[in-house]
Design a protein that fits this description.
Blueprint lengths: L3 E9 L12 H14 L3 E8 H10 L4 E5 L5 H14 L4 E5 L7 H9 L6 E3 L3 H14 L3 H4 L8 E4 L2 E4 L32 E2 L2 E2 L19 E2 L2 H14 L6 E4 L10 H15 L4 E3 L7 H9 L7 E2 L7 H6 L7 H13 L4 E7 L6 H13 L4 E6 L11 H7 L2 E13 L5 E11 L5 H17 L6 H9 L4 H10 L6 H16 L5 H8 L2 H8 L7 H31 L4 H18 L13 E6 L1 H6 L10 E11 L2 H14 L3 H10 L2 H4 L2 E4 L7 H11 L3
Parallel strand pairs: 1-2, 1-3, 3-4, 4-5, 8-11, 11-12, 13-14, 14-15
Antiparallel strand pairs: 6-7, 9-10, 16-17, 18-19, 19-20
Helix pairs in contact: 1-5, 7-8, 14-16, 14-20, 15-21, 16-20, 17-20, 20-21, 20-24, 23-24
Length: 692
């Protein structure tokens, strides 16, 4: 008997840039488990790229086609099932992943609207998918496979759901052979994809907006420290030199037992292989002291997440979430500063019960807590989340629109133009569409300005003068007419794009992009973009000097209103020049040749390093010093590697900016010729910028 030929795929779009650049670890686990269970009875191939899977199903059709299903590759997978059934109607098609409704009526509707889909494997995939293979091997015909439900799988028979569930999760995760050390992921160390690590599965929290908020995944199961260490060492020894990022798929990294050992193992491969330069993960909601200790061990390659989603207690109750308090954040600030750890906090716009004012108040609380980086997200309604159920939609009177997920579109060999679509909340029973748009503009200002490092000096000085930092961002958002002309035009483009990207239905989008002219617009970057990130890339590429001047103007207005003295104005002049130098020309190819220079009366670098509350007054230099702002070779290589990888255009830069470590994006201050900065200042500044 021939082995069962199985194709696994975790597909990504790569029409204008790679959309999901992580290696296909998810399907790699399922494939690896199948190999351990069925040995020579299965013949397995894993795919990530559209063209390779397209070619394979035509030249050598599989017996089973199994695809991951997320909001970012759902339509693509469904179209591949349609293509597959035309080539061979007997191929078994299987979806797996979190993008599947919670309630049974919606599940039934889902299966009916995916006529080319045979089975869905919810929760974790290894056990359910192995039961499909087991049934396949035992059956005398394809028809026999569908005669009765398959354990831990969902299917449709006579237009009705059939399913039977036992325990669908593996408790001892080491039972799943490593896709890395077994070699089945070797081809994906290709210089295009970044490796992903998983140390545990499950989430003890029950947030209603999240697909991992389900009761059946609350228990956290772990891989062993030895297994994690072996995977990391294998990754470090195989990763190409142009790959700088490690993804960790854990939902609460740093919070759980064993995470400190994982950090130590990451440091080991940093020392051994000079990788990774950036670690991306979702850190835990609780045990922040432990998380701080974990992140501190990673040498500045990872930010501390203080994601709160909302600061309003009623909203948090509505979404079944408990947050770290603002008081606790402030209490942790000295420890965070001591270790020079950067903090990031996410807040979701449009959650149940969130008003315009409560959202504004939440942002202000986070700014007062001195978060380095605040990200405002539109609220997505995800299949598989409680919030997307019909009951919740009705309860909160959600008003939603649809938009193309950034960069997620392609023309397939079937002749069909395909894209991925997300549904976002743009209004509710307590927030209007107009308020939503205004908050998005504020989110844009925060995204560009509150990046940490680049404008630290302005923010620290305003705090020193007891000025409300929230006013800085709010005024920039509300008064674009005060900005330089180029920035006014950026605000106009942003506002138009924020409205133009929204549609009333998915069908409206799908129909529109079948038109060749409309599809060409997507190729030219006139749609399917992350509006905030795209315009951020535009500012950093073309108008960063103008943005800095706008920020300095608003800050200067606030200082004037506070009636500060002449000495403070002189200090602020130095601070302005420092920020002009640090922020200048980060993304153009001539960045190494445009090195601004300014004379300084105050030692800004040492003042920024000081976390003891000593004012800038005490950092006056004995003599004015001339400083030049430039990139070193390591910085330039990391920036250029990412631009080459994602594309040296605005679309590519939106992705590159997420991958470039923020310490490496901005210029460093150095003395020139005979005018040297004091050695201690240089040492402190070098440590701050080169913590990698």
């Amino acid at each position: 008997m021939k082995p069962v030929k199985i194709y696994f795929a975790d597909l990504t779009y790569d029409t204008v840039a790679i959309s999901t650049e992580s290696m296909p670890l998810n399907v790699g686990y399922v494939a690896s488990y199948c190999i351990s269970q069925f040995g020579s009875d299965v013949e397995i191939k894993i795919f990530k790229y559209i063209d390779k899977l397209d070619k394979a199903i035509k030249e050598s059709p599989p017996d089973i086609l199994a695809l991951s299903n997320y909001v970012w590759n759902h339509n693509l997978g469904n179209e591949f099932f349609h293509m597959m059934k035309k080539i061979n109607s007997k191929t078994i098609t299987v979806f797996g992943g979190p993008n599947f409704p919670l309630d049974f009526p919606s599940q039934n509707f889902f299966m009916e609207n995916h006529p080319d889909l045979d089975f869905y494997v919810p929760i974790e995939g290894e056990l359910g998918f192995s039961k499909i293979i087991e049934r396949f091997l035992q059956s005398q015909s394809i028809e026999q496979i569908f005669e009765s439900p398959i354990e831990n799988c969902v299917s449709l028979k006579d237009r009705k759901l059939q399913y039977v569930f036992s325990d669908s999760r593996i408790k001892k995760l080491d039972e799943i052979n490593s896709p890395y050390t077994s070699g089945i992921l070797d081809e994906f160390f290709d210089g295009k994809l970044s490796p992903m690590l998983q140390t545990n599965r499950g989430c003890p929290f029950t947030c209603t907006f999240c697909t991992d908020g389900k009761d059946d995944v609350m228990q956290v199961n772990r891989f062993s420290p030895d297994r994690i260490k072996a995977d990391l060492d294998y990754i470090g020894s195989h990763v190409p030199q142009n790959t700088h990022t490690l993804y960790i798929s854990d939902l609460n990294f740093g919070m759980l037992p064993g995470d400190l050992k994982t950090c130590d193992s990451i440091v080991d491969i940093q020392n051994k292989y000079d990788f990774p330069h950036k670690v991306l993960s979702t850190t835990g909601k609780n045990n922040k002291e432990k998380i701080i200790e974990s992140i501190n061990r990673l040498n500045g390659t990872m930010a501390l997440s203080m994601s709160v989603q909302s600061m309003d207690q009623n909203v948090l109750k509505n979404i079944r979430r408990a947050n770290i308090s603002t008081a606790k954040m402030i209490e942790l600030a000295p420890t965070i500063k001591k270790y020079d750890i950067r903090t990031t906090s996410e807040i979701i716009m449009g959650l149940p019960g969130e008003t315009y004012q409560s959202h504004i108040d939440g942002i202000k609380e986070l700014i007062d807590a001195e978060m380095d980086y605040i990200v405002i997200h539109s609220c997505m309604l995800l299949d598989g989340s409680e919030m997307a159920t019909p009951q919740e939609r009705k309860k909160w009177n959600f008003k939603t629109k649809f938009r193309i997920i950034p960069r997620d579109f392609a023309k397939l060999s079937s002749g069909k133009n395909i894209c991925e679509i997300e549904e976002i909340i743009v209004g509710s029973n307590v927030m209007s569409f107009e308020e939503n748009l205004e908050l998005r503009r504020l989110g844009f200002v925060l995204w560009v300005t509150n990046q940490g490092v680049v404008y630290d000096a302005i923010i620290k000085f305003l705090r020193e003068k007891q000025i409300d930092i929230f006013k800085l961002f709010y005024r920039m958002s509300r008064n674009p007419e005060l900005a330089p002309k180029n920035i006014q035009e950026v605000f106009e483009r942003f506002g138009k794009a924020a409205v133009d990207e929204l549609y009333d239905s998915p069908d409206q989008i799908i129909k529109k992009i079948q038109n060749s002219n409309e599809y060409e617009r997507l190729l030219q970057g006139e749609g399917a973009i992350n509006v905030i990130q795209f315009h951020h890339a535009l500012v950093l590429t073309e108008f960063i000097d103008d943005w800095t001047e706008y920020l300095l103007k608003i800050a200067n207005d606030l200082l004037d209103e506070a009636k500060i003295d002449k000495i403070s104005l002189k200090q602020f002049s130095d601070i302005g020049n420092y920020c002009r130098g640090v922020s200048h020309n980060p993304l153009k190819k001539n960045r190494m040749l445009t090195n601004p220079q300014y004379d300084f009366t105050y030692d800004i670098p040492s003042w920024l390093e000081n976390h003891e509350g000593i004012c800038l007054d005490d950092f006056k230099l004995n003599n004015p010093q001339l400083i030049t702002f430039r990139y070193n070779k390591t910085q330039n290589k990391i920036i250029q590697d990412n631009l080459d990888f994602y594309g040296d255009n605005l679309i590519g830069k939106t992705k590159a900016l997420k991958a470039i470590p923020f310490q490496q994006l901005w210029r460093q201050p150095f003395g020139i010729e005979s005018k040297k900065i004091d050695a201690n200042i240089r040492s402190n500044e070098a440590k701050r910028w080169n913590r990698l």
